[in-house]
Design a protein that fits this description.
Number of domains: 2
Strand content: 25-35%
CATH topology of the largest domain: Thrombin, subunit H
Helix content: 10-25%
Low-confidence stretches: 72-82, 204-223, 261-270
Number of helices: 5
CATH architecture of the largest domain: Beta Barrel
Mean pLDDT: 77
Radius of gyration: 19 Å
Structural class: alpha+beta
Largest sheet: 4 strands, antiparallel
Shape: globular
């Protein structure tokens, strides 16, 4: 889906502000291309070694603004009198899955493409440098670190993030309520064009040690999906059960995936 209009959405989600919100989310979702397999992958993250240096494609995003970073600190460090490589100070921290990019060795052989689905805008490519653990995540989630990012790209993505947050407040509550049990997933199936899928999710109580005792949402799909969905953001809203103010907050979940030893090289949502 290259061009979106409100009629592309399910009837119960047809709202102009929500449409613009999804468009901003699509722009903040990138294609990740990895070449090579790290020798340090344990069995729980195993890949078919016959893949070798073949490209494998997945997804990453900057939608979760509170955790995905865009950093421009050069001026502050200059004022502090610190010397460092300016190129390293313009960085992106992209949320993805360790089943796609396991460690620094794989990150160094990773390419990230933004704006891949625009007809009139060439895709912008940057390269990976490292991975870091994701706050409140588990060992299957990571932040892919990209250094030496052009400042203009960071400014453009930061502007999109700001628009996304502004639109979040404009989405009608009845749509947010529906998205506490439904989800929109943005990915690059089979490494091709970006797609957005709509589906249902299930909630259950789960005391996650990294998140205190607050209820966590478990998104469970009973069908297989292609590897291009690894790391894909799943857009939901969480009911804050707060009597004062807004009752719903954007809650981004992740297609962690697990590569299976089948002829289709499929993965499961977890």
């Amino acid at each position: 889906m290259k061009e979106m209009c409100v009629h592309n959405l399910p009837l119960e989600f047809q709202d102009q502000n929500f449409l613009l919100f999804l468009i901003m989310a699509r722009i903040l979702t990138c294609k990740i291309i990895v070449r090579g397999i790290s020798q340090h992958r344990p069995q729980s993250f195993a890949l078919d070694r016959r893949i070798g240096d073949m490209e494998r494609v997945g997804t990453g995003s900057l939608i979760d603004v509170s955790r995905c970073g865009l950093h421009m600190q050069w001026e502050l460090l200059q004022l502090a009198g610190l010397n460092c490589d300016r190129r390293d100070l313009f960085t992106l921290s992209i949320l993805s899955s360790r089943h796609l990019v396991y460690d620094k060795d794989e990150a160094l052989h990773t390419t990230v493409q933004f704006f891949h689905f625009f007809n009139h805008v060439p895709a912008t490519e940057i390269t990976g440098s490292d991975i870091r653990p994701f706050p409140d995540g588990d060992d299957q989630t990571c932040l892919l670190i990209c250094k030496g990012v052009p400042p203009g790209l960071i400014e453009k993505l930061k502007d999109i993030q700001d628009k996304l947050l502004g639109l979040e407040n404009s989405i009608p509550n009845f749509i947010k309520a529906r998205l506490s049990s439904q989800t929109f997933l943005v990915s690059y199936p089979h490494g091709e064009q970006q797609m957005m899928c709509h589906g249902w999710c299930q909630e259950r109580e789960d005391n996650n040690a990294n998140a205190g005792d607050r209820p966590r949402k478990c998104l469970e799909h009973q069908v297989c999906t292609c590897p291009g969905s690894l790391g894909a953001p799943m857009i939901t809203f969480r009911n804050l059960q707060n009597p004062s103010g807004s009752n719903y907050k954007m809650d981004i979940w992740l297609h962690l995936g697990r590569n299976l030893e089948t002829g289709f090289k499929v993965s499961h949502v977890k």
